[in-house]
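step 4 of 6: structure.
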Amino acid sequence: DADVTQTPRNRITKTGKRIMLECSQTKGHDRMYWYRQDPGLGLRLIYYSFDVKDINKGEISDGYSVSRQAQAKFSLSLESAIPNQTALYFCATSDPLLNGGGYTFGSGTRLTVV
Amino acid sequence: GDSVTQMEGPVTLSEEAFLTINCTYTATGYPSLFWYVQYPGEGLQLLLKATKADDKGSNKGFEATYRKETTSFHLEKGSVQVSDSAVYFCALSEMDSSYKLIFGSGTRLLVRP
């Protein structure tokens, strides 16, 4: 099994629908992150969490919410999806002992909002 | 705020050619610098990193040197292979307790046989 698992891998949804992207990890890391990837823009941080009680907004959190259900699970929700949220979404974990170099990424969720 | 700028792609090379992908950064303090690689259909993988000025990161034949004077971290490889075809991201780690990564826009490399 992968260290960081994202579900679903692909999703098409309609404008206005609520959708949840899930992420689970077996690395045992406390830190988890959600990024979105858009062509030509690289990856941008949506939310990050240091533990189940510590949730922080990233640079593009508007329109998104997260839930840290357990150390191993970190879900991203789009409350009312809109077409410009069409993107590739990545979950990642990190090991602070490796000074940022310990990021492990999931394989991504490709979301299309029509 | 902190930022990373890298050359636009795609970069198309023949097998065994020399590769350079330019990366410059803007940051307060002295961040750690990274190169990540994304193969088709996969997530990002750490390729190499450098944590202080003049450090050279290396892995799989790729190298990059942390140049504080030019705020650069250019990626090089002496002889590319078809299997190196991927998207390469330069990134920095912010110097606070968050260790958030700030990414460049990515450079697609296509190596032809």
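step 5 of 6: annotate
 - Chain A has no helices and eleven strands.
 - Chain A touches chain B at residues 4, 31, 33, 35, 40-45, 48, 56, 58, 90, 92, 94, 96, 99-103, 105-108 (CB under 8 Å).
step 6 of 6: archive
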